[in-house]
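Regression check, alpha-L-arabinofuranose case 553:
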Amino acid sequence: MFLGFTCVSQAARNAQSRWLPVPPDITRALLLGLSLIAMATTVPGAVAQKVQLSVEVSRAGPKIDRNIFGQFMEHLGHGVYDGLWVGPDSTIPNTRGIRNDVVAALKALNVPNLRWPGGCFADEYHWRNGIGAQRVITLNPNWGGVTEQNTFGTHEFMDFVDQIGAAAYISINVGSGTPREAAEWLEYLTAAQPTTLAKERAANGHREPYWVAYLGIGNESWACGGNMTPDYYLSQLKIYSRFVRNFNPAQQDKQQMRKIAVGPGGSEPEWTDWTEAIMKAYQNRGWSWDIHGLSMHSYTVGHWPPSFASVGFGETEYGQILNYTLEMEELVSKYSAIMDKYDPQKKVALVVDEWGAWYAPLPGSNPGFLVQQNSLRDAILAALNLNIFARHADRVRMANIAQMINVLQAMILTDKENLVLTPTYYVFKMYVPFQDATFVPVAFNAGTYTHGDIRLPRIDAIAAKDGAGRLWMAITNLDPNQPAEVEASLAGITVKSAAGETLTAAEVDSVNTFDAPKTVIPKPISARVAGGKLALTLEPKSVTVISTQIDNR
Ligand code: AHR
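Current build output:
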């Protein structure tokens, strides 16, 4: 039985308020406004739309933190069990119970950090249930009311992040736990001295202290995490920030654990109040507590309960969902501006640690398991959000798509021994070169794609320089019908060639399945050089990433 929708009640309200007859919003104004930067060359009715793209190679922006490509994994449906954890006795090839095929696929994404154990689950998670030889069987009231075997616990999670090469982002229980419970968990994880807890960790198989890079202090504490007011949460935040310490000797200086406070979950005035309260307290903080990040959650839902289909939809639903997802720009701008007031030096990162598409559960699935398919539309949605984060790289320094395996907008779907990589997976793979690259401004004539009353920028693009002297461009053609002829001028450099990959498919709702896993996979693309400029043709509804070597590093 599915017992809980309470944890998403805020998301519900946010989503409802978005279900309006598409007024001009800041997002679209911003993106459509880019068309003023260069001449509008869109010719109505023409087959291939011309796009002028101007990359200011010599102007270096902020670093695009690799952590914006973070992942989120919750004890929810088959996100953990069967998704990655099959147990050491499984016939599915595994290493200490963790699926080898999943690890191999995730290693290719260079996953920078992984948030765990929730989500709403985190505020009912008691870590001692998940260590040692005898695991305590509990319930998962938020997600289907199923039993939780706790066979995947602290050591298994730390083994998993180690196998995929990611940093651990642990979300502690502020809702139903205590500061002591959380403090002891961190001592168990990180103490090097022979304390009773450190010795217990060693007895359970790990003598060395673990590395915990990020600590989430609560999850959605304004709703499923305890329905707290800003003042109440702040009093908790200060206590947890003070007493939940990382004792790992190697993490006492520059590598210290980053603490992330609960931030806004929508665009309504209450979220402004919440953000103001946390950031004002931060500005006035004393020596005894600190935060390094403020979390923000924003799903692309449409309306509540989630009713957009994840497969079997048409151009209208494609346009509507992309229109909703572009509201991320408005939210990030709004909360960045509030943070700027109290933290002009931008010490606190805006951490979008839950984002992605949330659709109707697949027919026949447990509605509490949040199972959905992942289509070409999701690939484009992912690229648009990553582009927004990159454009705000000075403040958005971490983000976590929800969720990594088998839940919501997943990278990977599994069914027993079968595994399939989703279109979203391929976007994350194509964007790997943007991890820690330097943002480069790019101006372009976005043009407008219209369908009924839906108006979207036809093109979106970002550019960045990597440490090896290559320039990378990611260009998305949102228009599902018209190709785009892109002509890119790269101010100040001579271009010889550029090549990369493009991701598209026959239909906006094309998906990869266990039977047909290669319907939406990247294929090679190369640019032509004409008059010192790069020219390439983008297929309709496509995401393209290309690179070119540059000399003037
Ligand atoms: O990702 C699913 C849920 O969405 C998370 O548990 C919660 O934080 C949010 O409401």
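Comparison notes: The longest strand covers residues 349-357. DSSP finds twelve helices and 26 strands in the chain. No diff flagged against the previous build.
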